[in-house]
Amino acid sequence: MSKINIVLGTFFGDEGKGKIIDYLATKSDVTVRCSGGNNAGHTIQVNGKKYAFHLAPSGILTPGTLAVIGNGVVVDPRVLIEELEVLRGDGYSIENLRISDKANVIMPYHIEMDKMLEAQRAPGDKIGTTARGIGPCYCDKYERCAIRMEDLIGDTFEEKVRKNVKNKNIIFKANGWQESDAEAIIEEYKPLAEYLKSYVCDTINLLHDCLEKDMSMLCEGAQATLLDIDFGSYPFVTSSSPSVGGVCTGTGLSAHDIGEVYGVLKAYSSRVGEGPYITEQNNEIGDTIRELGHEYGATTKRPRRCGWLDLVALNYAVKVNGITGLAINHLDTIGKLPTFKLCVAYEDNGVRTTNYSTNAAFQERCKPIYEEFEGNFEIGGATRFEELPEKAKIYLKRIEELTGVPVKFIGTGAGREELIVR
Ligand code: IMP
Q1: pLDDT tens across 183-193, in order?
Q2: What is the pTM of this model?
Q3: Is there an atom of ligand 1 within 6 Å of 270 CB?
Q4: Which domains does the chain possess?
């Protein structure tokens, strides 16, 4: 019986999970998405062509690999079909796709609600959502009025749309927002349901069968630990569980079924949207990192806030997720700076601490304590650890020492193959 290996983000997303997922996906029989929706995004380059995926699991590009959208994902059928059509247009088969009958469907009124709520928040309270309807869709899930994939392709769809639209319109009207049209939505979604119907199935039993058949399994995380609805910097978080717990609730696999948990990070850090960020460099250094690392959102194109790597936060992600191996991207980028810093502890009211908390007052109070490292090293494209300059090895060794977790993957350039696997 096999186990499922997991790739998760350790900070605020955009750590470069896609690169590690690509590498592992080509060696996997099954790739699974378990949480989030098309707020996530990663680009895969195959045969010189770039594919920007928001919903399709990476395995979709590998013939014979099952690409599973688990029950914890929120699916915008319009976005998914757009991605699938691009692939089909380029000659890829999408027959290996499976979508959980329990995955929740993002409806047009979720997107409107997302935009309305964000527009109403005062400047300091804005979450900076991706406006893809993610939060409102998960709200319906917990309100128990959601439309699941099994509804979309079944007989309950029309009635549920009418009921939901009636309720949402009360809120839209009270806020002076454009109301939704249930009949127009039903007409628009009928052909989408027809398109997706044959891919919808019970993925819970399917995934357990795959484990029993000893197939190699990969769960590709979306977003990251500090955006987790429970463990992140609430309320500046996403509305799902992108940490390890979300793998169980979003797939139906148990804690016993989990194998390696790879935590992905960058040699520096970044954040999109609002919220506290202790090691942020809101200055020339941050601007330089942004340009060197091309730190602009894959989904929204927004410039990312940039700063130093924070080991206090990383150790929190290690604890929460049970991380067994680290994957560090952009080592080449940090090496372009003459010197750079690593946050190894915080000073909290004059007391040194290495315990992270997302509590807003704690985040406000704490000052980072840094160690400084020498940069100016070139590692472009290295594929073997031995090729790395001593200065780069010193940095990696310090991260391993302070986390107690081995560095298993090192990103040495933007290309797919610019990766060291240890
Ligand atoms: P939502 O997920 O669209 O509701 O957005 C909530 C917060 O999570 C915002 O700050 C977003 O910028 C952030 N967020 C959501 N998905 C991602 C991601 O894939 N990478 C980075 N930030 C994300």
Answers
A1: 999 999 999 99
A2: 0.95
A3: no
A4: 4-101+200-262 (3.40.440.10), 104-195 (1.10.300.10), 265-421 (3.90.170.10)
